Amino acid sequence: MSRELDLRLTAAASIGREAGQLARELFERGVPAKFKSPQDYVTEADARVEAFIRSRLNELFPDDAVVGEEAGGEPGRRTWIIDPIDGTANFAHGVPQFGVSIGLVDQGRPVLGVVYLPTRDHLYTARSGGGCFRNGRPIHASACADPATAYVEIGYSPRSDRAHYLRLLENVLDAGILVRWSGSAVLSLVQVAEGSSDGYCELFLNPWDVAAGIVLVAEAGGWTSDFFAGSGPYGGRPLLACGAAFRGPMTRICSEGLRGTDLLDPAHGIGPLVTT
Ligand code: IPD
Ligand code: CA
Fold this sequence. Notes:
Layout: H1 2-29, E1 33-37, E2 40-43, H2 44-60, E3 65-68, E4 78-86, H3 88-92, E5 99-106, E6 109-117, E7 122-127, E8 132-134, E9 137-138, E10 151-154, H4 162-174, E11 178-180, H5 185-194, E12 199-205, H6 207-219, E13 222-224, E14 237-243, H7 247-258
Parallel strand pairs: 3-4, 10-11, 10-12
Antiparallel strand pairs: 1-2, 4-5, 5-6, 6-7, 7-8, 8-9, 12-14, 13-14
This protein binds D-MYO-inositol-1-phosphate and calcium ion.
């Protein structure tokens, strides 16, 4: 398996970089944007970049399944999960904070992650058991364990329940944590992996937002909740991610914010959270 995984990592890294260059070209040229649903942007670039990634993966690995944000797809035993442009609202507003995300899930477990941020020329790569790298150099999640010095991203989209989001935010602020948000789940996750933020939580995310980032964080020595737990891994779920030393405080603070909701149910993939 590790030879097959290494082969796929090398391929995904090169496809991710090329796809990002295409996304950047389209960003600089400017492409029309529209809404899929309230505040959920899509641009011509999303479809074009996804089509490019799909065609390269299909050509190289015809037996692997492919699921993407724009064109969907059916999962298989081994499934590539693609977000062609994460941070599309940033992209559509001319904010250069977006990334291409390519993850691989094998029998329900995320095993490989590649994220490319084309406007920074940062390529993040990881596969199970192999460590996490930015442009070929090892990176590590933060060692922060103290909420009073922590910087955490709390993401929001209209798909998140607003009351739960506000309660979560209130608990995190009460704990003395500095809160920011980049507008891209993929960016939030690579920041946790490289230790430039200490944690990230969002109440409703899709598999393409997180499949690659989860592997990056884990391989950088961080922790995430088990997004792909259970039998139905392709629906919307919450996610928590942080440095390993911050797992206790982060899960306690976020659990308190979510108390009384069914979001603590293991079926939502936050099983390992502290619930007492
Ligand atoms: C979105 C971003 C955003 C998150 C949303 C996602 P998109 O993905 O990751 O940060 O809050 O839930 O849908 O639309 O930019 O690919
Ligand atoms: Ca996304």
